[in-house]
Specification:
With 213 residues, the protein is an alpha/beta fold. It has two domains: 92 residues, Rossmann fold, CATH 3.40.50; 111 residues, 3-Layer(aba) Sandwich (Rossmann fold). 30% of the residues lie in helices and 25% in strands. A six-stranded mixed sheet has the order 3-8-7-4-5-6, sandwiched between helices. It has a five-stranded parallel sheet with strand order 2-1-9-10-11, sandwiched between helices. α6 links the parallel β9 and β10. α3 packs parallel to α4. GO terms for molecular function: uroporphyrinogen-III synthase activity. It is an enzyme of class 4 (lyase).
Amino acid sequence: MRPIYLFSISSHPDAVSVNSLSITFLHPQIDFSKYDAFIITSKQASKALEHYNKSSFENIPALCISQASAKSYELLGGKVLDIGGGYGDTLVQKIANYPKSMRWLYLRAKVVASDFVACSKKEGYNIEEAIVYESGCSKDILNIEVPEESILIFTSPSSLECFLQTHRLSHKNSIIVIGKTTAKAVPKGIEYLVSEKTTIESCIALAKNMNEN
């Protein structure tokens, strides 16, 4: 049975979990009273809010990109306005369901992979952005030694990019990515599979199935 490696900031008991990113939380000054709703695309955005006075934002609902990001905001005590389909382009559709007068604040990383904000702004939606965290490659992912025939799971473009700084993908590896945004980061000529759902659990299920066949 081939070992399964999960490159993510989350872990799973059925894989060798490698923390792929080091997160630095930033503390920009934010006047939360200016906004009607948040846009949250990662757990780190919710964690960044822990550095602010909860009473200043606790009544602001959030449009979340996935079930996981929604859960992270709920654990903070926030209310979820709506949940996207795991990709940035699904948020464009969700935002379009609300009035253009609605004032959104996108709590984001310094570097993002999706252009959904630009797309929504072109349609006249009022979205401001606050960079609340930045990520860098962890020592764990840079230094990990991976057997050639392993199953490798990447949960974000940045996790794959960090891995490729010090490793090469072998044709003997089996590559699983969590969604089409991460798939775009796979080097040309390397075969990969995309998980059915944009969840780690779905990736693990696919990896287990590969081990059984």
